[in-house]
Amino acid sequence: QNERLRLHSRLEEAYGSPVVLEGAHRSPTQVASFVLSLPVDARRSREAELRSALRGSAERSARRTGARFGKVACVVDRSASSFGSSEKKRRPLAVALALVAYLRASSDAVTVHYSSPIDDELWLTPRGSTDLSTPILGALRDEPDLLVVVSDGFENDPPGVAGGLLEAAQRLFPRAFFLHVNPVYDVESYAPKSLSPRVPTMGIRDACDLPTLVAFAKLALGKSTLEELEAHLDQRVRAFLAGG
User: Fold this and answer.
1) Dihedral of CA 113/36/158/182: which sign?
2) Cβ partners under 8 Å of residue 4, min gap 6
3) CB of 95 within 8 A of CB of 29?
4) Radius of gyration from C-alpha coordinates of the chain
């Protein structure tokens, strides 16, 4: 599927023949990666198709994983560093966009807060410095059951505040669960860089892995049992085999 999408993208660049997304069983992360590879003007001209493809992929993934979340708030780092590397351009941002779509398909209610405000996430681009404190405060006002922060762990506006804010929020909202998912591997620490040692940080490559990351993080914090984790993994295996 990845190679087919790459080849189609090259054909589109060379001949202007658009990649057909409808009906293709691609993951939300694959669809989001393709969407963000297009210039904003091209996204606008194919708006209905791209929205439908992203929503359809997220809904299929939500049904396959069987995950269901309650009230969710998602904080997305769209700073300049979310551009990614020269080998994987916009990969961190694509994971974040896919995760937002997946949460909307698998949750009762979702609010999304960006490090730099944006009117419509389909026009999402890397921009500005990393202010995570402001969107985290906005997310806390929603009083979510689950708060997910998508960030590479580097903040500079101001530096080092988001982690302390999340720690304080854990004490103020004991019934909520806080998770930092990081789509970037930090070569200095050989692990995903965390915002706080007291807030679980999990590396994420695909948006559909979120339920499993939540399950592992809850076990690590003593908020679930090994039996619950094993039951979740059994369910994921069954879904994987059925999907194959």
Assistant:
1) positive
2) none
3) yes
4) 18
Per-residue pLDDT of 61-115, as tens digits, reads 998 888 899 999 999 999 888 877 766 778 899 999 999 999 999 999 999 999 9
For residue 119, pLDDT beyond 60: yes
C-beta atoms surrounding 238 within 10 Å: 11
**CA–CA gap between residue 173 and residue 71 (Å, rounded):** 14
Query: Which amino acid type is present at position 119?
Result: D
